[in-house]
Design a protein that fits this description.
single chain, 311 residues, mainly alpha, 11 helices, globular
């Protein structure tokens, strides 16, 4: 492992980061990723005046490399505690729960305006006229996709390179979310951010999709998740979101994807999964799938560590 940490160290520090996240949750004030977002916005305003590929590459390097190197220096001096702290700052498992479970709660109470507002905070689609089924679908899709981006991709790169690996992944993922749009402003400037995020997510996304297959509650569910992954993922615009979301939808027995409103226009997206449309209760089912996948990854990390210890 590039971090110099042993397999047992990685497993223990992974567990420590997840526990810290569960206990403390997302920082309410002065969150490092919020500060990074402001830094990235300032860099983009300076460099993205002509929308060039080279400017985007320079912007990515200026935003990500110094902070990743700083994380490496801090981890080198601070040891295990810094690795665990860096993972805690990067992982977003509790944040997924805290942003999505309240949507389900609002829908159960019949408070559609609050459910719309809560959903608008986590998705880019227009929720102003969304009904219960639309909101349940949006939240479920967000949970499945961001399970990879906020949790499993972070854990994977932590296993590869410790705390600095987690920082690298989350900063790159954040830049993709900010710059990776195919519009006039970001088509060229954001190309580098989008492609690097695709590369960093290539392995974690497929491990996440495989985990969703494994954790489907029935044998039929496992077969369905595998089939949806193989048949539907190629049609999705993102090479990594496609496998994750189609596999997760199949595991839950849901039909996701389809129509969604963006900037006042109805966009017909490829289908995801097979089964019934998402309902309020499926938000909690999707959350449990992400939570259980986290437990699976931690268990695998400890199994690998023990295997190496006895080898």
């Amino acid at each position: 492992m590039l971090s110099g940490l042993g397999a047992l160290d990685i497993a223990l520090l992974m567990a420590a980061g997840v526990v810290l996240d569960a206990l403390l949750g997302e920082a309410r004030r002065w969150h490092p990723l919020v500060g990074f977002g402001r830094l990235a916005s300032a860099i983009e305003k300076i460099l993205n005046r002509h929308g060039g590929y080279a400017h985007g590459i320079v912007g990515w390097l200026l935003a990500v490399l110094p902070l990743t190197l700083l994380a490496g220096v801090l981890a080198g001096y601070g040891g295990y505690a810094v690795h665990a702290l860096l993972l805690y700052l990067c992982i977003g498992l509790r944040s997924l729960r805290d942003h999505n479970v309240p949507i389900a709660d609002a829908l159960v109470r019949g408070d559609l305006p609050r459910a719309r507002w809560l959903t608008s905070r986590i998705v880019s689609r227009d929720t102003s006229e969304a009904g219960e089924a639309d909101l349940a679908k949006a939240s479920t899709e967000s949970l499945l996709e961001n399970g990879n981006d906020a949790v499993f991709g972070t854990l994977f790169w932590f296993a590869v390179a410790g705390g600095p690996g987690a920082i690298l992944f989350r900063l790159a993922n954040t830049l993709d979310a900010m710059w990776g749009y195919r519009n006039a402003r970001f088509l060229r400037y954001g190309w580098c951010a989008a492609r690097i995020d695709d590369a960093l997510n290539l392995i974690p996304a497929r491990l996440t999709a495989l985990s969703y297959v494994f954790l489907a509650p029935t044998l039929d569910g496992k077969r369905r998740a595998w089939h949806c992954w193989r048949a539907q993922a190629p049609a999705w615009s993102s090479p990594n979101a496609g496998p994750v979301m189609s596999s997760g939808a199949g595991a839950l027995g849901l039909s996701l994807g389809g129509a969604a409103v963006y900037d006042g226009e109805v966009e017909q997206r490829p289908p995801l999964g097979l089964g019934q449309p998402a309902r309020t209760a499926d938000i909690l089912r999707a959350w449990r799938l992400v939570r259980n996948t986290t437990a699976l990854w931690l268990a695998v990390a400890f199994i690998i560590a023990l295997g190496r210890h006895h080898a």
